[in-house]
Amino acid sequence: MSLYSIIDRYREVDFAGFFAGVTDEMVERSLARDTLSASDLLVLLSPKAGEGRYLEAMARKAQRLTVQHFGRTIQLFIPLYISNYCANQCAYCGFNRRNPIHRQVLSLAEIETEARAIAATGMQHVLMLTGESQAHTPMDYLTRAAEILKRHFASVAIEIFPMDTADYRRLQGVGVDGMTLFQETYDEEVYARVHLAGRKTDYHYRLTAPERGAAAGFRMINIGALLGLAEPRREVFFTALHGRYLEDTFPDTEVSFSLPRFNEAEGHFRPDFQVDDRAFVQFLTALRLFSPRAGITISTRETAGFRDRLLALGATRYSAGSSTGVGGYALGRIAENRQFEIADGRSVTEVAAMIIAHGYQPVFKDWDSIQ
Fold first, then answer.
1. 75 to each of 123, 345, 361, how far by Cα in Å?
2. Spatial distance between the Cα atoms of 281 and 251, rounded to a whole number of angstroms
3. Of 120, 261, 269, 343, which residue has the fewest beta carbons closer than 10 angstroms?
4. pTM of structure
5. Do 275 and 228 form a contact (C-beta atoms < 8 A)?
6. What is the dihedral of CA 237, 240, 244, 246, to 10 degrees?
7. Contact of 330 with 117, CB cutoff 8 Å
8. What Å distances lie between residue 240 and 226, 285, 296, 358, 371, CA to CA?
């Protein structure tokens, strides 16, 4: 059964009606299970499960499962934007092709300069990002960029436009070992409404990209929805089902989740939904209980104080020292071209110190490619 078939089975489900009917007994029963079904996950995403005593119980169980599977460790990574050209017109994104921002693509020499500056912080996991323009960042450029980064970092992952398996395999062949790709929203109608032009309007091609990446040999696949575009409890539910589909289909692939909340960008877009901190914690802990072995990334979209409090609730990966602009490190180009606003501007050293202060170990490197 395809992922789309799984999602389509829930098309007529009355989610609001289900959530309204969740009882104390249902929450307690789902909380007690060692392995959660899709129905159990829905129960734990309900407003009833978000009440104080249940949220506290979910948090305790999420912490226990995370320590059991990951130890008291937090892996660190850093994003590197190498281009902000984009052929898409996404209503919510700062890189929207209609936004009047300064566009640029780093030369290979500039990528080398940025890589050296990042590596000097001790980071060994880098995430290479672009806008989604194949014309400005073609495959030959991407493979050469990845080769440069691979000289400086143990792990090079990508967050770029979706592509065919053969192209993912080319990147895997030069050392790229992971990918992040957000579906943005699993609600097909909302997806059509916020993606106005460009290849990104193809819901199905984007939905199947993570499995093409896994088939190409990436060891790590990170997925998520941009929380705020559509009803968030449904979005987290389908994100979790997507993750379980990947785990079942590609058992050798490490599956991770992100929970990006909408943050300000160019274009003055205002999402239909807001996710407050309490709901965010419920979503994070529900994902952990549903997928105990999955990584969970907390980005610098969240504030420093909130990220500190999430350490013990199921998170496993933190970005640090981040810039969301092209050339934002050694080249210092950060003011006019960033994709979204950063809420935690702490340096790598400061985030690592915070992790240690909370009794956890910051991990700069947990992977090496042995030829």
1. 10, 18, 8
2. 27
3. 120
4. 0.95
5. yes
6. 120
7. yes
8. 14, 12, 11, 28, 34
Q: Which amino acid is at 182?
A: F
| Beta strand pairing call for 254-258 and 295-298 | parallel
- Report long-range pairs for 101-109 (Cβ below 8 Å, ≥24 apart): 101/266, 101/336, 101/337, 102/336, 102/337, 103/337, 104/326, 104/327, 104/333, 104/337, 105/130, 105/136, 105/137, 105/141, 105/326, 106/82, 106/145, 106/326, 106/327, 106/331, 108/141, 108/144, 108/145, 108/148
Give the number of other Cβ atoms within 10 Å of residue 216's Cβ: 20
- 346 close to 323: Cβ distance less than 8 angstroms: no
Contacts of 36 (CB under 8 A, 6+ apart): 30, 44, 289, 290
